[in-house]
Structure formats: structure tokens, C-alpha cells
Amino acid sequence: MASKIEVYVYVTDWLDRLGSRFLNRWQFQYRELVKSGYITNQLLTVTNFPATAVNVASQKQELIRRIRKALPASTFFGFGNMTNACAVFCRTNDALLIQQAVNQP
């Protein structure tokens, strides 16, 4: 009979492998979508954060608010930001709208 520690190790290893498998699959699909031109990556500079966006979390909330204001809720996008620049991946058709929305207060 397996001990609790052995079961724990087995389950955590299994979850790690499962997570890696899904991450690898996502990365493959992402690369294929970029290669096909369906999605794109952009590096945008945000020039007009409000005074209330004082940290990364509030800046992200402000960017999401601006993008959601310009795009329908069904549109997907993802981003990472650092200071006043953000890297956005989105559908190629939405790239111009996102670029405009990011600098609209």
C-alpha cells in the first residue's frame, strides 16, 4: 500500500506533466495562429495613464477597460505590461482598434 507521501508525489508529478502538455499545446497553437496571420503581436506605448494608475495592477485594469470599451466582449486579447509599454496579442483584424483604444482616455 502506498503512503500518503508517495500518493502526493505521484499526483503532483502527474499534474506537472499535464500542465506541461497543455502549455506545449497552447504554445504550438499560438505559433501556428501567428504564422497564419490570424493573430498578431504588438508593442504599444501608453502615453496617457490617469493619475489613479499608480501601479502595474491599476495600469492593467485601465488597459483592459480601454480595450473592452473599443472591442466586443467576445474578442480575445492578452497582454503583459511594463511601465508605459504593453505587449498585446490579439486578432489581426482588431490590432488597429486596440492600438487606438490604448491611448484613448
Q: Could you list some keywords that capture this structure?
A:
single chain, Ribosomal Protein S8, Chain: A, domain 1, three-stranded antiparallel sheet, alpha+beta, 53% helix
Describe this protein's structure:
With 105 residues, this protein is an alpha+beta fold. It has two domains: 1-36; 38-105, Ribosomal Protein S8, Chain: A, domain 1. Helix content is 53%, strand content 19%. It is built from three helices and three strands. It has a three-stranded antiparallel beta sheet. A hairpin with a 2-residue loop joins strand 2 and strand 3 (85-91). Helix 2 (56-70) packs across helix 3 (95-102). The model has no long low-confidence stretch (mean pLDDT 80).
Envelope shape = elongated
**Which oligomeric form is depicted?**
single chain
- Proportion of residues in extended strands: 15-25%
**What percent of the residues sit in helical stretches (DSSP H or I)?**
40-55%
Mean pLDDT: 80
Structural class designation: alpha+beta
Radius of gyration computed on alpha carbons: 19 Å
Treating each run of at least 4 consecutive H or I residues as one helix, how many helices?
3
Number of structural units classed as domains: 2
Give the strand line-up of the largest sheet: 1-3-2
CATH class label of the largest domain: Alpha Beta
Distance between the termini: 63 Å
User: What is the element string, with H for helices and E for strands?
Assistant: HEHEEH
**Architecture per CATH nomenclature, i.e. the level-2 architecture of the largest domain:** 2-Layer Sandwich
- Strand segment tally: 3
For the sheet with most strands, the description reads: 3 strands, antiparallel
Q: What is the CATH T-level topology of the largest domain?
A: Ribosomal Protein S8, Chain: A, domain 1
Low-confidence stretches: none
